[in-house]
Design brief:
With about 750 residues, the protein is an alpha/beta fold. It has three domains: about 240 residues, 3-Layer(aba) Sandwich (Rossmann fold), CATH 3.40.50; about 280 residues, Hotdog Thioesterase (Thiol Ester Dehydrase, Chain A); about 120 residues, SCP2 sterol-binding domain (Nonspecific Lipid-transfer Protein, Chain A, 2-Layer Sandwich), CATH 3.30.1050.10. Helices cover about 35% and strands about 25% of the residues. The strands form four sheets. It has a ten-stranded antiparallel beta sheet with strand order 10-13-14-15-12-17-20-19-18-16. Strand 19 and strand 20 form a beta hairpin. Helix 1 packs across helix 8, helix 3 runs parallel beside helix 4 and helix 4 runs parallel beside helix 6. The two termini are about 45 Å apart. Bound molecules: 1,4-dihydronicotinamide adenine dinucleotide. 1,4-dihydronicotinamide adenine dinucleotide binds next to helix 1 and helix 4.
């Protein structure tokens, strides 16, 4: 069983905690170690009167049980005072439960200004004032949990509660925005709509129901939402009687009523009313960006419908909205072959597009066609394949009926089989490798092979995410997808910071990605962006360039492959910070925007070909080693059983094999990352344990003639690092006696 949830060290303010739900929360938090500010004005249910008794009694009860609590008698309308009480008594504020409430029920026509104002002052303004007073403390300490108390009356409406319903749903709007603004400070804000027997509900519920719907059936949700382990933010929950359910918005597919260059009429709305309100295939937009995106899509559909008659337009719009994916039909489909003809101009333009600069000592190699080693940057390999993607028309394929305005570039993999030529004609062949159902969207894996004549030059895998196209009952993962890998759990080995220019996207697009999102402010605004954003593949090119320079001396022939996930947009002019971890010939990378610390490329890595100085021939002197055979065999075993071995062993072993007292070979057996690997050469990262042993003694150990412990004590086998890990060696060395 996992550990109980503790609130030790946390300071909680519960407003309206003199009775009902608030009292239950205060007791529950204090039982789990929190220091609690018990706030209650001690008035009647309509907001009249005042007494310190309510809060005092709860404080006494907590203290009698050994808990820590202080009382606060101020109204939530004086939010600062409540927070000051927490700071004075306990020095901080971590959790705010906005719970205080009153009722002034009246049928709508009889609702007075006073009825309206009082309800809004206590519920909505009170929660605002208390939360605002706590906000900066939470922000500074990078932790905060806030609960807003809404009500089913707000969500669904309730006779006689116009004032209360309005204020209660206002709290949801407040919470939605606080969840967004709090996100980067680890401040979470959630809303509950509880039902429990209390003095507020005893006037409307039968006594036995008041009795059965206990406040203690609500408190556990509040505690979980406020715990540091809980990731939830911006959620709305109905809770009562021991049941908890989450609510979200649902939106019909809707219908485009307007037609290009025509007026929009109420009659058209009337005529399409059924389809406007048809909730079959409803979507569940969760952000304002998703909401805006729909309007952007509508505008672009209308724009492209010039010359199409009104009837055709509406049916086209409905057809794309009701999109569908059929993996059985789509997988294996090929796009028409594309041809990409280029000269040094495209190579140089691309290099400038991904930030290559005359500031780099090696710039001539990439920017001057007259240089003796003039080369293409390896990531230029995406460009011919991109033309396959764009010209080939994914939309023409059977089984892929998607809304192209919803397409995002999620991940990318590029592998080169030889350095790219600097001019010529390349042909690309794209195939749908797989289609995945991620629920909220679909992922299309598009494999593109690019050839120069007959020779395969490079391979790209585009992971195309189609928002809203999931839920067709397909599989979630594919063995064909090139895996992302997390960076090692240590500080990066190297960091490069490189500023993009204000015109970076304007320059990069000249390499062939003409999406106006990267140049036109009004188009970007419709997509929910403040300004045009940089192409993901431009940041990708920056990061690859950083690795190439730092670890491969700007030698394109060392570049083998790169994989990235695009996480967040970068704005032109921001600085990219590439963090790098070397693990053998694999360089793990993570790219951030320096100014905001936001990760923009994750799970990424570049694979390099070994440098000539690492190559085995330089290490082995005096003829072949017997141990080479064993390592070759270990290499095969890792290929066959890699993931299983990684699971069992979870360590990196370094080996130094000596002959005639000199190091004759170095090997690294990596059974920690990915699906395991063997490589000849020293361990670039940190081996868990490194063994030094002569070729002869190594063979005796693996053949079972020499006991490793004895070899160790006799000084024949030296081990540095985590010696305990040597016990796991058996898993890889056993069964070699037969060799
Ligand atoms: P309750 O009446 O037992 O508790 C509310 C507490 O807030 C009272 O102790 C009252 O003195 C205090 N209070 C009122 N005005 C205040 C102010 N200006 N400053 C500080 N304290 C003040 O009621 P209950 O049922 O425990 O309600 C708690 C919250 O849950 C309220 O916000 C209510 O609207 C909400 N709610 C309750 C439901 C239920 O079924 N009990 C249903 C839906 C919402």
């Amino acid at each position: 069983m996992s550990a109980p949830l503790s609130f030790e060290g946390k300071v909680v303010l519960v407003t309206g905690a003199g009775g009902g739900l608030g009292k239950e929360y205060a007791l529950a938090f204090s039982e789990r170690g929190a220091s609690v500010v018990v706030n209650d004005l001690g008035g009647d249910i309509k907001g009249g009167g005042k007494s310190s008794a309510a809060a005092d009694k709860v404080v006494e009860e907590i203290r009698a049980k050994g808990g820590k609590a202080v009382a606060s008698y101020d109204s939530v309308e004086d939010g600062e005072k409540l927070i000051q009480t927490a700071l004075d008594a306990f020095g901080r504020i971590d959790i705010v439960i906005n719970n205080a409430g009153i009722l002034r029920d009246r049928s709508f026509a009889r609702t007075s200004d006073m009825d309206w104002d009082l309800i809004h002052r206590v519920h909505l303004k009170g929660s605002f004032k208390v939360t605002r007073a706590a906000w900066n403390h939470m922000k500074n300490q990078k932790f905060g949990r806030i609960i807003m108390t809404s009500s089913a009356a707000g969500i669904y409406g309730n006779f006689g509660q116009a004032n209360y319903s309005a204020a209660k749903l206002g709290l949801l709007g407040l919470a939605n925005t606080l969840a967004i603004e709090g996100q980067k400070y680890n401040i979470h804000c959630n809303t509950i709509a509880p039902t429990a027997g209390s003095r507020l509900t005893e006037t409307v519920m039968p006594p036995n129901l008041v009795e059965s719907l206990k406040a203690e059936y609500v408190a556990p949700l509040v505690l979980w939402l406020c715990h540091e382990q809980c990731e939830e933010s911006g959620g709305l929950f109905e809770v009562g009687a021991g049941w908890i359910g989450k609510l979200r918005w649902e939106r019909s597919q809707g219908h485009i009523i307007r037609h290009k260059n025509q007026n929009m009429s109420p009659e058209a709305v009337r005529d399409q009313w059924d389809s406007i309100c048809d909730f079959s295939d409803a979507t569940k937009p969760a952000t304002i960006q998703e909401s805006l995106q729909t309007l952007v899509d509508v505008l672009s559909k209308l724009e492209s419908d010039e010359g199409v008659s009104a009837n055709q337009t509406s049916s086209m719009a409905t057809a794309t909205v009701g999109s569908g994916i059929n993996p059985a039909e789509a997988v294996g489909q090929k796009l028409p072959e594309t041809t990409f003809t280029f000269t040094h101009v495209q190579c140089v333009l691309y290099a400038l597009g991904v930030g290559m600069s005359t500031k780099d000592p090696d710039y001539l190699r990439f920017l001057f066609e007259g240089h003796q080693d003039f080369s293409c940057l390896p990531t230029f390999g995406v460009i011919p394949s991109q033309s396959a993607m764009m010209d080939g028309g994914l939309s023409s394929l059977p089984g892929i009926n998607i809304d192209f305005t919803q397409v995002l570039h999620g991940e990318h993999y590029l592998e080169l089989y030889r350095p790219l030529p600097t001019s010529g004609k390349l042909t690309s062949q794209a195939t749908v490798a797989d289609v995945l159902d991620k629920g909220s969207g679909a992922v299309i894996l598009l494999d593109v092979n690019t050839y120069s004549g007959e020779e395969l030059v490079c391979y790209n895998q585009w992971s195309v995410f189609v928002v809203g196209a999931g839920g067709f009952g397909g599989k979630r993962t594919s063995e064909k997808a090139k895996a992302l890998l997390p960076p090692p759990n240590r500080a990066p080995d190297a960091v490069v910071i490189d500023a993009t220019t204000r015109d970076q996207a304007a320059l990069y697009r000249l390499s062939g990605d003409w999406n106006p999102l990267h140049i036109d402010p009004s188009f970007a605004a419709m997509g929910g962006f403040k300004a045009p954003i940089l192409h993901g593949l431009c940041s990708f090119g920056f990061a690859a360039r950083h690795v190439l320079k730092h670890y491969a001396n700007n030698d394109p022939s060392r570049f083998k492959a790169i994989k990235v996930r695009f996480v967040k947009p970068v704005m032109p002019g921001q600085s990219l910070q590439t963090e790098m971890w070397k693990e053998g010939n694999r360089i793990h990378i993570q790219c951030k925007v320096k100014e905001t610390d936001a990760v923009v490329l994750s799970g990424a890595y570049v694979d390099l070909h070994a440098a000539p100085e690492d190559s085995p021939k330089d290490l082995i002197q005096g003829g072949a080693l017997e141990s080479d055979l064993v390592f070759a065999e270990i290499g095969h075993r890792i290929k066959d059983l890699g993931p299983e071995l990684v699971k069992k062993v979870g360590a990196v072993f370094g080996w130094e094999i000596t002959k005639d007292g000199k190091t004759a070979a170095k090997w690294t057996i990596d059974l920690k990352s990915d699906s395991g690997a063997l490589h000849k050469g020293p361990c670039s990262g940190k081996a868990d344990v490194t063994f030094t042993v002569s070729d002869k003694d190594f063979m005796e150990v693996v053949q079972g003639k020499l006991n490793p412990q004895k070899a160790f004590f006799a000084g024949k086998l030296r081990a540095t690092g985590n010696i305990m890990m040597s016990q796991k060696l058996e898993v890889i060395l056993k069964d070699y006696a037969k060799l």
